[in-house]
Specification:
Structural class: alpha/beta
CATH class of the largest domain: Alpha Beta
Shape: globular
Order of helices and strands: EEEEHEHEHEHEHHEHEEHEHE
CATH architecture of the largest domain: Alpha-Beta Barrel
Largest sheet: 9 strands, parallel
Oligomer: single chain
Helix content: 25-40%
Radius of gyration: 19 Å
CATH topology of the largest domain: TIM Barrel
Strand content: 15-25%
Number of domains: 2
Length: 315
């Protein structure tokens, strides 16, 4: 049976900007031919037409739902669901907007208005997560799962049900982790929600990190705890990991957030890359959308967080 070229259904325009960067614009057009199109679900970074569907070989059934695993060919979820990027040696920035799923209007606005290069982190205790995951993936976003972890002032400050605690046994913490992991599929990794005390305790952290690593996921530390032992534990468990350089919306004001984004850009230009994290406030969404629109003109490539992770398997 004759097959249609899967790339034929798009107009591709390349434009060189004043600083030498190449901007590629894709727009739809009628596909050539009438034959079927075969989509390779095993490529690195999913085809956008399949992005809301999980790769079945990267899932296992459990009592907590379907959990991510490394595939029989060694393929990891962090590779399968990563957002593709140019591979150029330019300045790269990843921005993660967290807390998705907690507010229907906030989640909808984030998915609709944030550029597709922005990574979305879904709260484990959120609502309608499967639906929002699918919408986020169809819109081109890389996504993460956000796990509540014990802060220093727990229980006065309680991150929510199934919080990972230093007082729980490793088995109980991994049960809580798996319960959260089973809420959705198609994510590249795990991100902490709070967790100052948990992240500073290697004995509690190590079993959790080891489980995340063996499932082919990355771990993003939001950078909120100076006492975090993430790096040391990650290196000992061969876990791909990343650290946020800046919390962008400590002050919930659009202009203040834009100033933080400019600071993030300076860090990226100095170090080659930088990661910023924010919550899904209206002001954060407005500022990030505005800044991202202009970043490419200044030679900044906005990438998914997986592109900036330190990966022991790809040093």
């Amino acid at each position: 049976m004759p097959r249609s070229d899967p790339r034929s259904g798009a107009n591709v325009e390349k434009m060189t900007t004043g600083d030498g960067s190449v901007v590629t614009k894709y727009s739809p057009r009628p596909r050539d031919g009438s034959g079927p199109v075969l989509v390779d679900a095993m490529q690195i970074g999913q085809d956008p037409r399949m992005a809301a569907m999980p790769n079945e070989s990267l899932l296992e059934d459990s009592s907590f739902g379907r959990l991510p695993i490394v595939g029989p060919d060694g393929r990891r979820p962090m590779d399968q669901y990563a957002r593709p990027w140019s591979g150029a040696r330019g300045t790269r920035v990843a921005i993660v907007v967290s807390g998705l799923g907690l507010s229907q209007t906030g989640t909808q606005r984030a998915i609709k208005e944030l550029p597709e290069e922005i990574t979305l982190a879904f709260a484990a205790s959120g609502n309608s997560l499967q639906r929002w995951m699918q919408e986020g993936r169809r819109s081109g976003h890389e996504i993460m799962m956000q796990i509540p972890m014990e802060p220093f002032d727990y229980p006065a400050n309680d991150p929510g049900p199934e919080t990972l605690l230093t007082s729980k046994s490793p088995g109980k913490n991994i049960e809580s982790l798996h319960r959260a992991m089973g809420e959705i599929t198609n994510y590249t990794g795990i991100m902490n929600y709070q967790g100052g005390r948990f992240l500073s305790n290697p004995d509690a952290l190590e079993p959790v990190m080891r489980d995340v690593a063996k499932r082919g996921l990355l771990f993003l530390d939001d950078g909120s705890s100076a006492q975090s032992k993430t790096e040391a534990v990650a290196k000992g468990t061969e876990l791909p990991y990343a650290f946020a350089d800046l919390q962008l919306d400590g002050q919930v004001d659009t202009n203040a957030i834009l100033q933080k984004l400019d600071e993030l850009e300076r860090i990226a230009k100095r170090n080659g890359q930088a990661i910023g994290v924010a919550s899904a406030f209206d002001e954060s969404i407005d500022a990030i959308a505005k800044w991202s629109e202009e970043a490419g003109m200044r030679g900044i490539e906005v990438v998914g967080v997986a592109a900036l992770a330190t990966d022991p398997k790809n040093p």
